[in-house]
Amino acid sequence: MRESTRGRRKFRLLVAGYGLLALVILMGLVTQGTVRIPLSDIIRVLGEELSLIPSTLDDGGTQEAYRVILLKLRIPRVVMAFIVGAALATSGLIFQGIFINPMAEPYVLGVSSGAAFGATVVAIFGIGGSFLGFSMVSLGAFLGALLTSFLVFTIAQGNRSNQMTVLLLSGIAISFFLSSLISLMMTLNRDVIENIFFWTMGSVSTATWDKIFSVGTGITLGIGIFIYYAQELNIILTGEDSAKALGVNVKRVRSILLYTASLVTALAVSVSGIIGFVGLIVPHGVRLLFGADNRRLLPLTAITGGLFLSITDMIGRTVVPPMEIPLGVMTALLGTPYFIYLLVRRKR
To answer: Could you tell me the pTM of the whole model?
Structure first.
């Protein structure tokens, strides 16, 4: 018992230290951009906004310009990238655990195509306005992602004898079908092609504090549910019969995790567009370093996923200024080779 308590204490210190390191890295990312802002000025602006330090005299408008860049553009963007990355990474970990499949992740399972289809329908029909600070395109993407994921999982659950294979095949099939519909609608409605195409490439450039609070709250609650059921997921991974013998309601736990992961993914994709492979790369990397215990993996995967996407976004917006490389392009460049590697290793 002492060793167990000591182990938990060490792990909490590890998470706290990793979280502090992540905060330092995020602060460093905020300094980078077309306009480089010294860290001292970032600390000063944040201190003044939080009333921790008194306001200083503006030096020719520079301080006010920094304030606008930081509070309206750069900090919301870095924070949103972190939240979306954490959501996609932890959802990928849950999908892999539920279906005992290292290749399961939101992008492969068709959720992204569903989001793109929902956004395309809204754009083509010209549904304007907003709701709770979200554009109707974001809401359409959310509903499309949610409905598509439920459809894929329903098909897979109806084939328990070969569930993993059916899951992947149904996700791929629905993705191709929805992609074909999207291409058809874009061909017939050329006036909205640019807007749809930009959204499907993935970006967090439209991040606002309202979106961060709304989406962040839902995603945080979802990750909390993942962590709450982490031990049950560990037991299920040892075998369904063993889990039932130990008193775990396998069907109930799987359903809760499945639908929660779908909701978390839909929330993330609705504000970022299509960003693939984060749920594939990050969980495997963290698992290689820290083992297979989901109680440890989930918080570490959330932090790592957030950092991964925040750093990737920073590279995409600074490598060829003033142009930006979309997030979806960056993650696909990194994720596709790794996905092929997993396929080859699984075949062997």
So the answer is: 0.88
